[in-house]
Every structure is written in C-alpha cells, then in structure tokens.
C-alpha cells in the first residue's frame, strides 16, 4: 500500500516548469478500495478541512492543534501539518498561524497556498491568505494578498491565476465580494475580473465552495447569493473564466430556488467538476426530506447546452447533511453525516430502497444510484475534505473511525 502518489509526481513536474497546476480531481479508472492505508498519521483534535499534495508531501489544514505520528509520538501542530505521501512520516513543517485553515491549493516551487480565518502568519500580519514553503513553513514574502475581514473557504489555481472564495468583501483593499482572481506569484488582484456577486436577502454574500474545470475555462460557484454580474443565479452559478473578465455563462438552474431550513443562508455545501469537465456534482444540507426537495442531496448537472438546466439525477440521503464531494469519473464520492443514500422517501429514517452508507459513500456518475462501496466512518459532523489522486482518495473529517479502523481525522483509500 505504500505507493507514491501519481498526482504528486504530476505536480512536481509542473512545478519544475514554473507552472501552477490546475486544481481538479484526478480521473480514476475504478472505485478505490474500502480498506484505508495503515501508515497515515492521526490528527488528535478539531477537524480537517483541507488537503493538498505538493511534490511527495501531503499538506493538511483545519482547526486542530495536535497530531500523532505513525510511531505514536505526539506533536503540536496548530491548523497546519505536513507528512510524506509515501510513508506518512511527519515533516517539520509547522508555520505559526493564529486562526483556522479552511482551504489549500498546491503552488509552484514547493509551495502551498493557504486560506482561512487567520490574521497573522509567522508573526506577520496577513489576513486570510498566504503562500508558504512546504519545506520550511516560511512565508513567501513576494505573495502579499490579504483580505479585509471574514475568511477564505476555497482556493483553486490555474496557470498564472489563483482563485479565492469565501466571506470577504475586499482583497488588498480592492473591492471583491466573496470571489477574487489573483496573480499567483504576487497575490495582486486581477483588476478586470469581478463577478459582482450580490444577494437580495439580509445575509452576507458568501461563496461556500467552488470548482475549477480542468482546462481552467469554467468555474462553478456555490453559496449565499441571488445574482452574479446582474444575472439571476440562486446559490449556484457557472462562470466563463478563459478570458480577461468574469463572464456569467448562459447556463442556469432553478433547482435550488426552493427553501430548506430557514436558518441556512445557503444550503449548498460542496461542488466538484468531473475530470473531463463535462459535468459537476453538488451536495447540500438543509434539514429537509422529500423526493421533490433538493435539501440533503447529491446531484449531477451537465455543462453542455445553454439556458435552463435540470439535474441529470438526484440522490437523497433522507434528511442528513452532505458536506463534501469528489468526482473521479468512476464514482462521485460524497461525505457528511448521512446514514443512507438512495433514500428519497426517508425522513431521518430508512425509506423504501434506502441503502446504509454511514458518513461516506459513492454514487454511480451515470445512474445516480449508490455504488456498493461502503467502507463506513464514524459520522460526527462529517467529511469536510476529499482529494482524489492517481493512487487513491484522501479523506479529512472530524472523527477517528474510517473503514472500521482507527484513523484520526485523516485517511487514504488506495486504488486496488
């Protein structure tokens, strides 16, 4: 099981060429094993919110403060840690942040982009965004991006650009509500790219998650908003990002116009593009059950075509939240604190046809039905991070049972 990650090698080659690799799930020819590898370290508290692979190193971010190495030794690691993608050996990487990390993206030259709710990095004021050396943990001083308030919840890179989404309203004092495109080297805001995201509600505009297509030309955003660049787009929008400006695609859906629990400013929680860019999947919370509602569901949307789009399929949990999704071509992996999939008629119960999938599951991308893969995990709040690579599927959460084994908040299911 101690095999080198293909994705890590791909990133290393791109880095040598001076190019920032695109963030996208890696295509996998088959569903991963239900038996996680035995050599990953254990995060001992908090939650893992983000995972990135840089060279042969796995970088993990979240709300934790302690980690145990494979040999059982305990170390202090506040919000960030790094370990070998080959054997799980813990690295000395221990930058000092004063707040949580919610997003990571691999950068060039052995670096990682970090997003979250922190205000300082290694004692220097730099709010919500930073670029760090994976070897030393030092700040890359030439990258000076900083948000005004709020947080950064999602990051993606392609070529010269770094995309950031969250709850901020300005980057480097340049107004950018919840979404910005930055120069990946300097962190300067792209002056021509402004999605002008707004809402008619009383809540704050928020990009909860986004996904960048593998070619970098489409960005799907999910969150608390009603309009993008003046066009009506409720909670979900598709942007054309191949040019100098943020252009709202002639693609929309009314699937998420319906309400769920009024306590949620948005009930969308995660989105991910397929490796070929032809479709994406969305997962939701909402505390609402029923076959006609989009609360607590996973859904596939095709990109092709103009105008209104309906989901190709919808898979219902029966009233339990889904928080994270990864699309690999062979499967749509979903995680949260769900108990079942294929459960449109359940209401915190198993309805007709429901299949048990506690905390983690996989859906057939074509039929929308649950696959037989069922490793199980202790449910907790739920899976917060997936990362698919050429060797397997990384999973980050808030619990310590994965595949019927002890794995503290981080684990990896290898390809068979």
TrEMBL record:
Biological source species: Phytohabitans kaempferiae
Transmembrane spans: 50-70
Key word Transmembrane helix present: yes
Protein name, per record: PKD domain containing protein
Range of residues in the leader sequence: 1-24
InterPro entries membership: Delta_60_rpt
Pfam families registered for this protein in UniProt: DUF5122
Keyword list, A-Z: Membrane, Signal, Transmembrane, Transmembrane helix
UniProt-listed SUPFAM superfamilies: DPP6 N-terminal domain-like
